[in-house]
Prior knowledge:
Helices cover 38% and strands 19% of the residues. With 360 residues, it is of the alpha/beta class. The strands form two sheets. Strands 1-9-10-8-7-6 form a six-stranded mixed beta sheet. A four-stranded antiparallel beta sheet has the order 2-3-4-5. The radius of gyration is 23 Å and the shape is elongated.
Amino acid sequence: xxxxxxxxxxxxxxxxxxxxxxxxxxxxxxxxxxxxxxxxxxxxxxxxxxxxxxxxxxxxxxxxxxxxxxxxxxxxxxxxxxxxxxxxxxxxxxxxxxxxxxxxxxxxxxxxxxxxxxxxxxxxxxxxxxxxxxxxxxxxxxxxxxxxxxxxxxxxxxxxxxxxxxxxxxxxxxxxxxxxxxxxxxxxxxxxxxxxxxxxxxxxxxxxxxxxxxxxxxxxxxxxxxxxxxxxxxxxxxxxxxxxxxxxxxxxxxxxxxxxxxxxxxxxxxxxxxxxxxxxxxxxxxxxxxxxxxxxxxxxxxxxxxxxxxxxxxxxxxxxxxxxxxxxxxxxxxxxxxxxxxxxxxxxxxxxxxxxxxxx
Length: 360
């Protein structure tokens, strides 16, 4: 089975503040031109000495992206303890894409500004105030690559991750930071040890997948299963449902294995190893999805039981998931499938024993 993943909900919008008296459109327009033309001189001329040094990474990354706009929202606040020195912090929206990507994103970014009118200069990047973290392209170098509905922003080669998404349908944004510290920074420290990836609602309420590069070397099939799993969370917006974790994680893992059947044998061996020793019975509680737990394995087995086999497996699983995600009680959904909760638990236990070699 693939290493653990997580799903985070989106973050609340910031409180509305009074619109600023100074119009920053000229400054922001010059910054866009500097990024699009990769003109360091123009960028530095519209920045304070300190701002030019601390935001050169932002300029460089925006030059790599398909930058389509930088606009002030009209909200501002005074600089706080986490901000560079300046006169005010303005909220902007960065509209961007990636060459070859069919999608456009809008990301909030707070910028520290010094001076007014023609004398306004960029002094740095403000601390995020929405509860969300800063975008990866404001924190570390990225290499963007895209094809169709899928884009990858990676610290290293994005090609393996773009290939891994080949069997996953729908719009995807995959972010692969430089190291475990970068993963923690992007996820607000929510990433646990052993967490292979995290899917969350982005600032524009569209899903994004953040991969933990510290999980170890993955085979192409392993990367494919991992991205297919997370892509299900994006497709179903699972952060917005009230379904138990065994429903969300087990369904995503089952769907990932349907997409990568050649990986099932290897994953079952890993699954069996993780289910040795004393294992709780039946479907896991939400608390059992911690790192090193058996929650993911038992959730997957639950969905294998629910789906059954044959040509009806996929539509059967899809119907069951839709009902559970909509808030139907598991007992009622299982009854409609001809199962009781006790029978599901017993079948999960039997399959665990079979995987461990306790049953033939």
